[in-house]
Design brief:
The complex is a heterodimer of chains A (223) and B (520). Chain A has 223 residues and is mainly α. Helices cover 59% and strands 1% of the residues of chain A. The chains are: A mainly alpha (223), B alpha+beta (520).
Chain lengths: 223, 520
């Protein structure tokens, strides 16, 4: 009887192994992360471990700080653009609204530092794209505003003229339009003040004003 | 409690196989009806006692006696070779005794396990895990007693020594002394246990291979002769995730998302291995995503071509923009996954089988839907402007941009064709905005559909981290489309070479056309 009862109950168990998220040295995680990105490994195990480590409770703050510092160094110093972008995305995810545990503060200043110190357009685009999701919303909007206000010294000729694909000013305005009421307030302020120094930003702001500054809120929909 | 039961299960199942190879090594005290007894002196196990002789080929093993259920034979007995990974063994081959027994409240011994194992903690853990001992009081008051000893007189086992008592084998095999066949080649095949030439056929393990991710995969232990295989547990590993299930079921089945190695643990101590193969679903941008381009379907531009602000003669826009909405800035690939509602993929976690707990992308639906707008002021039918001075003398009082370009010997139709190419597929089929975005996203080394197809998350991570990381993997791939479609002035390198020549642009403040060389 005992045999028949027990043999009908399957047991499931996970073997206890070292948990990479909590126990692997930070350097090991970063080295594996860099390699995975370089070789385009779609499984991205180390990357997933880092993502999970940055979602751990606040008791792991020192580990998270070390990871973020390492990622910032990768974003700044790696010679591989893919690694730079992937590292910046991990930092951005740590400071993103709507993630499980409370977002890690001070992710945004790291992103701004990377943006200011790096002139790679792909890396800069990566960082601009992440701004609407950042929990440090006011600072993110101010950062986009400063980009949107930058002058443009290009001739503005060609079929697009000033509306070139890849223009950081108009892209920054588009990202502000994804920040809900906070973004709308910044766009309205920029339109009122005339602080946008490029023709394309001024034209786009006029266009937005004519349409009543339509916005959507990506971060709120995360919550 | 469950673990203790495994001792019983494992032992009983192994004994029921019939062909016990107890003949030469066991100690027989026929007729003992009251269970395994204990020898009078410790010499019985010195070294490790009679019947404990091991060989170089099989240095570790267990002797098991289990109370028979039907009572016809008090105890069933079998010798079980242990095949342990080299990682749990000592370099010098040192062994130790591993002895446990289950005793009922009335004193009747239900099962005895006497093993010779490597003298390492890992070996002790492995053997204990395999037989599920010790784990405290058992159901119905059965008590597990036992110890692991270094076989040292200074470190005696409290129940030392146990001697297994066994009846003669019920159905001796006539050909059990034939050589044990070599283990099968690894990968996909099965394994055989000892004494495969008599009694039930040696069990084999086979697993599905090539199951598209998300389909159903399974592994099966079979004997080939219809007898019930003696499985006590299953394990899957891909080097990162490990899934273990203790069950006597001969089939392990579930959603397949990740290839790896499956091991079936048999009651006789054998472990069968096979590859569990999972194939990609074959998702590709070209065949599984939506790419759509509407040439000139937007009408938001209408001005005399110029150089100044607002001078665009062509725009590549999102398909969903209103007809008069010239707003740019939306990312090329949609949904862009910058919000849950905007994710172009769904995820799932496998609920059972070898890949239980692993995460994967269940569905993905993405699109590149763009359209172009052309400045209607370029058409021959467009409104004209008043000319003056030398331009009036050359081309008349009133003309539009198209007429003026022709008047000046420029090529307005060539320019318009260049603009069309620039916004769409380009003069080569690859150097327009739309084709550049498409080529970037359909490039196999960047294709987000391939990425989604292949994404698998370890079972040690929560689903939220998997989703976040999947988005992080998707963003740069989609972004590469945005970067590839950039104009030269925006830092791009692909969208160029569609037209080059003399261009006249209207200057409202000066009331005349200005000339410049233009290329795009």
């Amino acid at each position: 009887m005992l045999l028949s009862v027990l043999s009908s109950v399957p047991l499931r168990a996970k073997v206890n192994r070292p948990d990479p998220v909590r126990t692997w040295p930070v350097d090991t995680l970063l080295v594996r992360f860099e390699r995975e990105v370089r070789v385009n490994d779609t499984r991205r195990f180390a990357s997933q471990f880092i993502t999970a480590a940055l979602r751990l409770p606040i008791t792991y703050k020192s580990r998270q700080d070390s990871l973020l510092t390492g990622l910032e160094q990768l974003a700044l110093k790696s010679v591989d653009t893919k690694v730079q972008q992937a590292a910046a995305l991990e930092i951005a995810a740590a400071g993103e609204i709507g993630r499980g545990p409370p977002p890690i503060p001070n992710a945004l200043p790291r992103l701004v530092r990377i943006y200011r110190r790096h002139d790679d357009p792909a890396l800069r685009l990566t960082i601009r794209n992440q701004m609407p999701l950042q929990v440090e919303r006011r600072a993110a909007a101010a950062f986009l505003r400063s980009i949107a206000a930058e002058p443009d010294t290009s001739a503005g000729t060609g079929p697009h003229g000033y509306f070139s694909h890849g223009d950081p000013r108009t892209e920054a305005l588009a990202r502000l339009a994804e920040m809900g009421e906070e973004g709308r307030a910044v766009l309205q302020a920029m339109h009122r003040s005339g602080e946008a120094r490029s023709p394309q930003a001024r034209i786009m702001l006029d266009n937005m004003a004519r349409r009543g500054f339509p916005v959507r809120d990506l971060a709120r929909s995360q919550q | 409690m469950m673990r203790t039961s495994l001792l019983t299960v494992a032992a009983a199942a192994s004994l029921s196989a019939g062909c016990g190879d107890a003949g030469t090594d066991s100690v027989h005290q026929f007729g003992a009806a009251d269970g395994p007894a204990f020898s009078a002196t410790s010499r019985a196990l010195d070294p490790l006692g009679p019947g404990w002789r091991t060989t170089a080929e099989s240095p570790h093993g267990c002797f098991v006696s289990v109370a028979a259920r039907d009572g016809a034979i008090p105890y069933l007995y079998r010798r079980i070779p242990l095949r342990l990974p080299t990682g749990v063994q000592t370099k010098d081959g040192a062994v130790t005794a591993f002895r446990y027994r289950g005793v009922r409240p009335d004193g009747r011994v239900l099962a005895v396990l006497n093993c010779v194992i490597p003298a390492t903690d890992r070996a002790r853990e492995a053997v204990a895990r395999r037989f599920g001992v010790p784990d405290g009081p058992e159901k119905d008051g059965v008590v597990i007693q036992g110890c692991v000893t270094e076989n040292s007189r200074e470190n005696p086992c409290p129940i030392d020594p146990i001697v297994v008592i066994a009846p003669p084998a019920e159905e001796p095999c006539s050909n059990c002394n034939e050589p044990v066949p070599p283990p099968p080649p690894s990968g996909g095949g099965g394994g055989t246990g000892p004494c495969s030439s008599c009694g039930p056929a040696a069990p084999t393990l086979s697993c599905t291979s090539g199951v598209p991710r998300g389909g159903t995969g399974q592994c099966t232990v079979s004997t080939g002769d219809g007898s019930i295989p003696e499985v006590v547990g299953w394990e899957f590993t891909d080097g990162v995730s490990t899934v273990t299930q203790y069950t006597s079921a001969a089939r392990w089945r579930g959603t397949a998302v990740q290839s790896g190695t499956v091991t079936a643990a048999l009651a006789d101590g054998n472990r069968l291995q096979a590859n569990f193969g999972v194939a990609d679903r074959g998702w590709k941008w070209a065949t599984h995503a939506t790419s759509e381009y509407g040439d000139g379907t937007a009408t938001c531009l209408n001005h005399t071509p110029s150089f100044g602000p607002g001078n665009a003669n062509g725009l590549n826009l999102p398909m969903d923009n209103g007809a008069s909405d010239c707003t740019t800035g939306q990312r090329m690939i949609q949904p862009d996954s910058y919000a849950p509602a905007g994710d172009g993929f769904t995820v799932g976690t496998v609920s059972g089988g070898p890949n239980e707990g692993l995460h994967y992308v269940k569905t993905a639906r993405l699109y590149l839907r763009r359209k172009s707008a052309y400045n209607q002021g370029m058409w021959p039918s467009a409104a004209g402007v008043a000319l003056r001075d030398e331009q009036q003398s050359a081309c008349g009082d009133w003309t539009n941009w198209h007429g003026f370009m022709r008047c000046m010997g420029a090529d307005p139709d060539g320019y318009i064709a260049g603009v069309r190419a620039h916004e769409g597929y380009g003069t080569t089929g690859h150097n327009g905005h739309f084709s550049a975005a498409y080529d970037a996203v359909a490039d196999p080394s960047n294709d987000p559909m391939i990425f989604f197809d292949q994404r698998v998350g370890p079972n040690t991570l929560d689903l939220g981290a998997f989703v976040t990381n999947t988005r992080n993997g998707f963003y740069p791939r989609a972004q590469r489309s945005d970067i590839a479609t950039r104009d030269i002035s925006g830092g791009g390198t692909v969208v160029t070479g569609n037209w080059s020549g003399t261009y006249y642009g209207w200057s409202p403040p000066e009331g005349k056309f200005l000339v410049n060389h233009n290329s795009f």
